[in-house]
Design a protein that fits this description.
Blueprint (H helix, E strand, L loop, with lengths): L1 H8 L19 E7 L6 H9 L1 H4 L2 E7 L3 H10 L4 E5 H9 L4 E9 L9 E6 L14 E4 L5 H12 L8 E4 L5 H6 L5 E5 L2 H7 L2 E5 L1 H5 L4 E8 H6 L1 H20 L1 H11 L4 H4 L13 H13 L9 H4 L3
Parallel strand pairs: 1-2, 1-3, 6-7, 6-8
Antiparallel strand pairs: 3-10, 4-10, 5-8, 5-9
Length: 314
Amino acid sequence: LACAVAIAACGDDDGGGGGGGGGSEAGPTTLRVGVIPIADVAPLYLGMKQGFFEDQNLKIEPQLAEGGAAITPAVLSGDFQVGFSNTVSLLIAASKELPVTIISQGVLGGKTEDEAWADLLVLKDGPIKEPKDLEGKTIAVNTLKNICEVTIRASLADMGVDDSTLKFTEVPFPDMNAALEAGRVDGACVVEPFVSQGKAGKARGIDPFYVNTAPDLTVATYFTSKQYAEENADVVDRFVTAMEQSLDYAQSNPDAVREILGEYTQIPPEVAANIKLPQWRKDITLPTVERLSQLSLEYGLIESEPDLNELIAD
């Protein structure tokens, strides 16, 4: 990331996509947007299909990546103009004074357990009967020292669990249920579509950690580099306008979300038809970002809390 910052400081001189202006005479501005092939980013693809970005004279080119660890440096170097990342990753980046800025809501964790699309799964017939039984046990997370670990620790602590005894190990989301069923872990941080798959099999949910940490948790957002935002303010404004339309459309049209999932993920149609969809709204829930920042400091992920007024664009 430090190398990426040095590159970003010199600007993007390759003449590639992105860039300023993007007026109608020059044709649409192309934005390479780093995303993960999961349900969370369905609004971006729906917005492309519905013409919301085209209406803003933008051409979106999604760039698939495995996670924020790859997306953040690509945005900072100018390879991507916009990226999608969970909030904790961006808090960590900002605390290290990396020039990132959040420009749009990405996905919300839900207000209630009924809306929760992420859950801590344990075996239905296993030894974990209640949250307290997880003390001293091993929990699978997709990335160590990140949002799964932060929210699970906070949620379980609120239920009286000594979270300092928890052990975490890294397992990719698609492998979570297999690791749980094989007994390699005692619990698993799982998101859709893997929550529904797990519960249809040998697992049950014990802690909808996003909702329990904070209702309407801002789980992930779209961001860009400060340099790009300053040099291309009009382009960023147009992206945000189209993105907000896309978020509203996705929330109001769940059937369209389920249909489009098959176009950019490997989720089969029969699975997409039954998963619990994420929640989308255009507003960033600032108090929940503040909570994630405080928890990240408490758990040692950051040495000091970043200035959220600097991190989140007006």
